[in-house]
Structures are given as structure tokens and as C-alpha cells.
Amino acid sequence: MTDSSEDNASDRAGSSDPAKVGKDEIASEEASWLAAEAELETPTGKSGDQEPSQKDTAGQRYHAGQRIVDPTVPLMMVETAFLASAASLVFLVNYYFPIGPLLRLFFSIPIALTYLRWGSRAAWMGALVSGLLLSVLMGPARSILFVMPYGLMGVAFGVLWRRGAQWSFSIGIGSILGSLGFFFRIWLVSLLLGDDLWLYATTQTTDLLEWLFIKLGFLSQPSLELVQAAIVAMIVLNNIVYVFVVHLVAWLLLDRLGNPIPRPPKWVQVLMDYE
């Protein structure tokens, strides 16, 4: 009897084991599915960590609040080529159909806009492409006269405007580049023509100072140092006025293109009645 009862108990235990095993397998499968769903629903990182690595339609990445440009993006090459050709076209039209100083205001703005939109690499590439295009259309000499100073000035404006420099500082840097470009132009043209244009400028300025001395009642003759200082002062003053007007044009134009530059001094905003 004891043996038969033990056999029956073992049979019942054996018959109940498959059911328990089946329930355990189902429970483990459900637990694994729940764990998988929870893992899929859990974000891989914070939204703030994901945003810097996301790319927009233009192929730009944002990291620490600044745009990181992929140089292989076609839009960058297209815009750089377009702005470089626009700068070259403005210079070409101004040379053959001069409209006073109006078109000169736009020589450096396309290069600066290239820097604001796509960074330093695109700006330097735009200045170089403009020079190469003008060398084909107008010759190497005139293309050099565009790159120095207007190409360099455009890159400098892009750097300063991107970093939020004040107008006084950016106008000072632009005036220095413009003055150096004027002296470079005199040297290059004098070299190509075989004539000293600086001597011609000195003669014309001497005549002007003599006329002023006569009008003011001075009996002395202007010295050579005074004449050359007057030439340098007029060149620097002319470039300060030119760069200031370029800043005004860029301020009004680039704001509407979605690439604003630093705000001008308060008196300029009041004078222009601009909000």
C-alpha cells in the first residue's frame, strides 16, 4: 500500500509539472515583451542632447548654439557660387557702367553674407571664386584689385558681424583695409603703367593746399610732409565714410534676408528712424 501510494503521489506530481512549466514560460515571455516595450519607449537621451546632432533640410548641424556646416552639402556650394558671381557682376557692371559710388557699396556685402550663412571656408572660397571669375572676364590685374581690398573686406565684415563686434570697431578695421587697398591700387597701377601715381596725387594735393592757403590768407607754402599727411588723411576719411555707409546698407538689407548684423549706435537708429 505504501509503495502504491508513493507511486500515485509521484505520478500526480509528474502530471502537474508540465502545467507549471507552461505557466512559467508564458510569464517569462510576457515579462520579456514588457521589458522590450519599456526599452523601446524609453528615450535614448535628452531632447537637448539630440538637438545638436540633428540635421535640417539645408544640411546644417547645430552645436552649442552655433551652426556647423557640412562642406559636402550642395546648398552651400550653390549659394557660395551665386553670391560670388553676384559680387563679380556688380564689380563688372560698375567698371563698364559707373553709377557713381552706388554699386561700390555692394562689392563686399555678398562675401560677408556668405560668411554669415556658411562660415569662413565658404567666404574665402567665395572671395577666391570672385577673383577667378573677374580674371577671366576682365583680366588678372582688375581681379586682384577686387580681391584687395573688397574681398578681404567682405571676409573681415563677416567675421566681425558674426561675432557681434561694435560698429566702431568694424568700421575701424574696414577703414584700415580700405586705406591699405587704396595704396595697393596706387602701387599696382603705377607698376603696370610705368608711371608714379603717388607723385601725381602729391602734385594735385599741393595745388589744392596752395589754393586753400591763398583763400585763408596764409603766405607760406605747404611743405611736402603736410601734403603727404593731407593725402593720407583724405584717404582715411574717405574710407571711414565709405565703410560707414556700407554698414548702413548691410544693416537694412541683411535684416530682411534673415541674417542680421549687430545693431548700430542709438543715434544712428534715431537718425534712420528704424526699429
Structural domain count: 1
Number of helices: 10
Identify low-pLDDT runs.
12-16, 43-65
Number of strands: 2
Fraction of residues in helices? over 70%
Our estimate of the beta-strand percent is under 5%
* General form: elongated
Mean pLDDT: 82
Radius of gyration: 36 Å
Spatial gap, N to C terminus: 107 Å
Q: Main sheet?
A: 2 strands, antiparallel
Summarize the structure.
Residues 1-63 are annotated as: Disordered. The protein has 275 residues and is mainly alpha-helical.
Please tell me about this protein's structure.
The protein is mainly alpha-helical and 275 residues long. The protein has one domain (55-272). It has helices at residues 2-41, 47-50, 74-96, 109-118, 120-137, 140-162, 167-193, 197-216, 224-256, 266-272; strands spanning 60-63, 66-69. Strands 1-2 form a two-stranded antiparallel ribbon. Helix 4 (109-118) runs antiparallel to helix 5 (120-137). The longest helix has 40 residues, at 2-41.
Strand and helix layout:
Elements lengths: L1 H40 L5 H4 L9 E4 L2 E4 L4 H23 L12 H10 L1 H18 L2 H23 L4 H27 L3 H20 L7 H33 L9 H7 L3
Antiparallel strand pairs: 1-2
Describe this protein with a few key phrases.
mainly alpha, 10 helices, 3% strand, elongated
